[in-house]
Specification:
Elements: H1 3-11, H2 16-32, E1 36-42, E2 50-54, H3 69-77, E3 85-92, E4 98-107, E5 113-122, H4 124-137, H5 158-173, H6 182-194, H7 203-211, H8 215-225
Antiparallel strand pairs: 1-2, 1-5, 3-4, 4-5
Helix pairs in contact: 5-6, 6-8, 7-8
Amino acid sequence: MSTNNCLRRGAMELHPVLKSFKTVIKGLAIALGPDYELVLHDLQDPDHSIIAIENGHVTGRKVGDPLADYAMYLLKVSDRNNEDHVTNFLTRDKNGKRIRSSTMYLRNEKGKLIGYLCVNYDMSRAEVARSMIEQLVSISDPDSYSEIPREEEMPSTFEEIIERNIGLIRRHIGKPLHMSSKQEKLQAIKVLDEEGFFLLKGSVETVAKETGNTIYTIYSYLREIRGDRTVARS
């Protein structure tokens, strides 16, 4: 700040409300972190309104700098505006960096607007993090992979996998497995085998129970389906 500006500022008595907020913004800056700029404006001198600023690197401003254009607009319309704040609006610095801004109106005991407390959040790091998260959680469109069950159809437990596969077979042959002929059971077991069902531990026992056969019979069916290849027990 120039010597003339210092003299001009020194000649103006700072309102107690503004004095109290000069200490408040220091604590807020520590609590919120380096991406938050805290700015205190004294509206007695709009051309040199900033009387305190923390984390000024966000916008590159300093004590003695003037009101921004949007703040000047707020000052002109303040008499028609009964609100005490304007929050979470988008602004940009001189380099185009996106900043989420909020302005709180500070008034004296008569309700006259005397200052602004501004909070400016540099969104740069949050936007990078959002981009990374979106990439991490993105999935391919299930419609383009018809052979892959949709997420809501994907079983999440062993019991659900068993029940899902047995249910598919019941619907496929149209009746309970224990009421099916040998040929129908062979067809059902063939479908399950092609789906990889018998890679699951306990699958043979489950099918044996469903069909009313012994596990030895199911192993025999599997050997028949696979052309007498060796069938390892699960």
